[in-house]
Amino acid sequence: MPKMRLDRLLAGQGLHTRKEVREWIRKGRVTVDGAPERAPERQVDPAEQTVAVDGVPLRFQEHIYLMLNKPAGVVSATEDRRQPTVLDLVPPELRRKGLFPAGRLDKDTVGFVLLTDDGAFAHRILAPKNHLPKRYTAVLDGPLDPSATAAFAEGVDIGGGDITRPARLTILENGPAPRVEVVITEGMYHQIKRMFERFGRTVTYLKREQIGGLPLDPALAPGACRELTPEELRRLTGEEAER
Ligand code: URA
What we know:
It is a single chain. By secondary structure, the protein is of the alpha+beta class. It has six helices and 17 strands. It has helices spanning 6-11, 18-26, 119-126, 148-154, 191-197, 230-236, and strands at residues 4-5, 30-32, 35-36, 43-44, 51-53, 56-57, 65-70, 100-101, 110-116, 134-140, 157-159, 162-163, 168-173, 179-184, 203-211, 214-215, 225-227. The structure holds uracil (URA). Uracil binds at residues 105-106, 109, 190-193, 206. The site of uracil has 8 residues, from helix 5.
């Protein structure tokens, strides 16, 4: 990040207004490299200097990238008048102006949702031409014809003029409530549910387990959310994809 005014830097995180942060500065609550700074116009370089409020050093990043373990019953939207949204699950310290889900899951689908305020990055993740794989596990309502695996590998006509790209289906356990794994590289509306409908099956449970090369952190409880490390961010974009 280039040098910028102290008040702009503090307000730029999107959580506080310039007026609020100027008040902090005026009261001597803000230090730069340990020394109280009372000039809001002071130019600081957040990469080189330590800015603290009430003694707590702040980390400044241009953008934020969050992994959310979405529970059922929450919509993948930034606002909704009636239903809880994925943004409602973000703790205050991780909130940023412009945060949105990069890719949607249905209300009843659980698992990995990436939240970011970086539009260009989200575009790269979502652009169909980039074929970023997304891995899901699902439970179905009855035995699945094993020929579905070959059909998924060809691409499935899911109606409405939509034909999927080749997808990978692994039947983990067949029987009255089969457990399956599906890897798709696009995100058509209700895509996985519609793919199984072609084989006479209803998806009763659906979880997104992985985006690109990055699996959902198994330690992240449903409804919890945390920042990605730079290494995880690289894995997500597929630079070190496992699959
Ligand atoms: N496919 C679906 O049918 N629903 C989702 O939420 C994700 C993929």
